[in-house]
Specification:
Helices cover about 75% and strands about 0% of the residues. Helix 1 crosses helix 5. InterPro entries: NusB-like_sf, NusB_fam, NusB_RsmB_TIM44. It comes from Alkalibacillus silvisoli.
């Protein structure tokens, strides 16, 4: 499984966790088609464990927004990208940003990708 596909899988699981507060994390892993890669599991577990830290970093880099106003797609993708930027040494910042933007365009729209790019660009400079 490619890293891009692993990120997509991680996004799908984390998105479900974010919108379905009643879902059990283990159940979400079970319903995913096929095997989940080690990299996808690393992202999922990392984002869950470091959610408060990631949200704080995101919040500090928003202009005229609060994290509570961000849609679930954007919030999930921002968390994944910030997790990779701060905790996955082998992922270059540019790759984390580009992958988040591409997933935003795929799962939401062009504006979503621009918003994510803006926030993540600010984080890479901080």
């Amino acid at each position: 499984m490619s890293r891009r596909h692993s990120r997509e899988t991680a996004f799908q699981v984390l998105f479900q966790i974010d919108i379905n507060k009643e879902a059990k994390h283990d159940d979400l892993f079970k319903v995913m088609d096929g095997d989940i890669s080690v990299f996808a599991i690393q992202i999922i577990k990392g984002v869950i464990e470091k959610k408060k830290e990631l949200d704080q970093i995101i919040e500090e880099n928003l202009e005229n927004w609060s994290i509570s106003r961000i849609g679930a797609v954007e919030k999930t993708l921002l968390r994944i990208a910030v997790y990779e930027m701060k905790h996955v040494e082998e992922t270059p910042y540019k790759v984390a940003v580009n992958e988040a933007v591409e997933l935003a365009k795929r799962f939401h729209d062009e504006q979503s990708g621009k918003f994510i790019n803006g926030v993540l660009s600010k984080i890479t400079r901080s």
